[in-house]
Amino acid sequence: GLALAQLRHYRVRTVLVVCAVALAVLSTTLLASVGVGVVETGAEQFAQADRDLWISGGPTRIGPSGLDNGITDAHRVSAEMSEREGVMNAEPIAYQTVYVGTDPSDLRTIVGVGIAGGGGRTVSITEGRSFEGGDTHYAEGSYDGPMTHEVVVSPELAAQLDLEVGDTIHVGGTVSDARDSEFEVIGVSPTFSRFLGTPTAFLLLSELQEEMGLTYLFIAH
C-alpha cells in the first residue's frame, strides 16, 4: 500500500522511470537486431564474393590513409598463389582513403579500392566495363609502366557526383594530388560499396599505390 501511495504521489517520476526502462529495453533489442543484421549481411557479402579463402597479413589495422593488413608486394604473392595446383584465381585487394570530386576545389573522402586486374569474378559491372590489359603500371615491380588513369565507381558515388561512363573525376591520396590527377570513369560497379557499406571508387592496384605515394614500399630491387 505504501509503495502504491508513493507511485501515485510521484506520478511524474514514476512515468519517467517507466519510460527509461522501456527505452533501455528497446535500445538493447535494437542493438541486438543491428548486430545480427551486420553479421548476416557480412556473411552474405562474403558468400556473394565467391571466394573460398581470404588472406591477410595479420589483424586489419586502420592506418593514416586507410585499412592496412600488412601484406607486402601483393602482386607477387597473388601471382605465386595462382600458380599453385588447385588455385583457380588469386586477386589482391587494397583499401585506402582517397579524395575524389569532379571539381578540384570540391573534394570528398571515400574508400578507394585497388585491384590487380579486371577483377574477374570478384567485380560485377552494371554499366560500362572493367579494366582491360592488366595492371601495366606495376611493370614487374618497377612501378614505371604506363598508367591507364581509369576508375570504376559505385552507383552511390555516381549518383552523388552525377557521373556517367566517360566522365572525368579527380582522384588522389591528398587534396593536392587529387587536384592534379584526373581519371576517366569507365564503369559502374556495386561490388565494393555493398561489401563496405559506403561509396567507393576502384583503380588498378599499382595506380592506387602510386596515388597514395606508397610505391616506394614495394619497388623490387
Quick overview:
The chain has 221 residues and is an alpha+beta fold. It has helices at 2-9, 11-48, 74-82, 155-161, 175-180, 191-196, 205-212; strands at residues 61-63, 66-68, 93-103, 106-115, 127-128, 150-153, 168-172, 182-188, 200-204. The relative contact order is 0.15.
Tally of DSSP helical segments: 7
Strand neighbour order, sheet with most strands: 3-4-9-6-8-7
Helix content: 25-40%
Along the chain, the helix and strand elements come as: HHEEHEEEEHEHEHEH
Instruction: Summarize model confidence as the mean pLDDT.
Output: 78
* Backbone CA Rg: 24 Å
Structural class, by secondary structure, is alpha+beta
Write down the overall geometry: elongated
Report low-confidence residues grouped into runs of 5 or more: none
What does the model show?
The mean pLDDT is 78. The chain is α+β, with helices and mostly antiparallel strands and 221 residues long. The protein is built from seven helices and nine strands. A six-stranded mixed β-barrel has the order 3-4-9-6-8-7. A two-stranded antiparallel sheet has the order 1-2. A hairpin with a 2-residue loop joins strand 1 and strand 2. The protein is 37% helix and 23% strand. It is elongated and about 85 Å long.
What is the fold's blueprint, element by element?
Blueprint: H1 2-9, H2 11-48, E1 61-63, E2 66-68, H3 74-82, E3 93-103, E4 106-115, E5 127-128, E6 150-153, H4 155-161, E7 168-172, H5 175-180, E8 182-188, H6 191-196, E9 200-204, H7 205-212
